[in-house]
Structure formats: C-alpha cells, structure tokens
Amino acid sequence: MLTDKAITTYKDPPLITYKHREVILKNIRLVKKVIAQKTLDYTENLEKIRPHFVVHGDDWKKGIQKETREKVLIIIKKWNGKLIEPKYTKGISSKKLKKKLKLLNIR
What we know:
The protein is mainly α and 107 residues long. The protein contains five helices and two strands, in the order αααβαβα.
C-alpha cells in the first residue's frame, strides 16, 4: 500500500493516514500482510514478493501513473503474474470529498 509520502509525490495527502489505512486492510479476512510501498516504483516490492496478482484501479491507465503501470506489466510478466484492474468509480474523488469536509468544518 502506498505510504502517505508516496501519494504526495503525485497528489494531495490522503484523507486517511497510512497507519489507519493499514489497520483497515489488516482487518479484511483474506489479507495476510500489508507492505509499505514507499515510492511509485513498485519494482523492489514486486521482485521481492513475486505476486500472482496485482490489483489496481484502472484509473492508472492514463496520467502520471501510466508509466508505473507499464513497468508493473513488464515486471510481473517474468513470472506470469496477472494485473487485475477494477473499474475506477467515476464521480468519487478525494479532492471533492476534502472540499465537502472543509465546508462542513471537519478535519
């Protein structure tokens, strides 16, 4: 999972801190381990773990993360890994949510 610092390299800081997001993920029954992704370059973690599947929203097909996606595809091909890209939820935006929370004077 991307750290707060990694996220801020391409957009505003997340609403929920890394530690809180980690707790949420660790409480999902089938999640066995959460690994910090400190940069947008997944190479080191992918080579270390060699996962069968990488799951990422399809929003990274364009924009700043496009190169990252292409690199992930090249790396996981080495061991026949598969990329699963759930459709990004249109209209859901952390920027919009932050703006609404600010209007409500929350956070």
